[in-house]
Amino acid sequence: MAQKNVELVMTPGEVHWVGDGFRVHNFIPSRFHLERERMDPFILLDYNSEYEFTPAPKPMGVGVHPHRGFETVTIAYQGKVEHHDSYGGGGVIGEGDVQWMTAASGVLHKEFHEKEWSEQGGLFQMVQLWINLPAKFKMGHPRYQAIHNSDMLKVELPKNSGFVEVVAGEYEGKRGPVDTFSPVNLMNARLNKGGKAIFSFPANYNTALLVIKGRLFVNKTVEAPVDHFVLFENVGDTFEIEATEDTVVLVISGEPLNEPIVAHGPFVMNTKREIIQAFDDFNQGKFGYLKD
């Protein structure tokens, strides 16, 4: 095994609002050296760092919007989100839960703070990650995978270090519950102060960390504080993290698709012609109907 070294540690950039309910830092693709091609198959990462919403009688969020050609993964750390789509899917993403939506050939979707949570207000912290679909699956059927925290695979770490929640992919030979269209690993390491965890992914996989809570060292030398993003080189396969306080870190690693990426707004396809077709299909009502 060869050590996988850190390429860069990135501070969170300026915030922007998605709708009126999500106050996010964008790491993928708008930050330096985190272009879609570099992070393939991860094509967007928006991070709503910890933020307190005051009580609101009308839930805030994002109204009806389309998606085609990729998957959206919503990870809830604090707060609750309610969602609905034009295929009749919907539900509540509670604290610790993950919603894995495959837009594929196209859905209309909306997402808002859950009504009761909105009325009370409180701390809100979420990640939304977009994962590209291989060309052969882009026009497949949409689907949902709702992963409640109680159903996640949890791998206990030695020496009271904490545990790793495996959502997708594999850790220590144990696989998470999500079915993916290409090799993707997504997991949360929840470490106690002084806790350590070792991860190993193929050298060519694009691999990164997002520190959700606390502070850690990577490979004993590189410090990563809360809300910072850590990108690894595509050399070596193994790295270690050690928490200097109670820490939660999102770990992502995926095999590049190495296919053309043509993106425009809510559509991610392989050619400009396919993007034009997506807009035509949307305008002709082929994504179904969803009340705003």
Can you give a write-up of this model?
- The protein is mainly beta and 292 residues long.
- Helices cover 8% and strands 51% of the residues.
- It contains three helices and 26 strands.
- The protein has helices spanning 36-39, 115-120, 272-283, and strands spanning 6-10, 15-18, 22-28, 42-53, 61-67, 70-78, 81-85, 90-93, 98-102, 107-113, 122-132, 143-147, 153-156, 162-168, 170-171, 174-175, 184-191, 196-200, 206-213, 215-218, 222-225, 229-232, 238-243, 247-254, 262-264, 267-269.
- The strands form six sheets. Strands 1-22-19-24-17-14-13 form a seven-stranded antiparallel sheet, with no helix packed on it. The chain has a seven-stranded antiparallel sheet with strand order 2-3-4-11-6-9-12. A four-stranded antiparallel sheet has the order 5-10-7-8.
- Strand 2 and strand 3 (22-28) form a beta hairpin.
- It starts with 5 loop residues before the first strand and ends in a 9-residue tail after the last helix.
- The model has no long low-confidence stretch (mean pLDDT 96).
Question: What is the residue-averaged pLDDT?
Answer: 96
Main sheet overview: 7 strands, antiparallel
Percent strand equals: over 45%
What would you call the structural class? mainly beta
Broad shape = globular
**Unreliable stretches covering 5 or more consecutive residues:** none
In N-to-C order, the SSE pattern is EEEHEEEEEEEHEEEEEEEEEEEEEEEEH
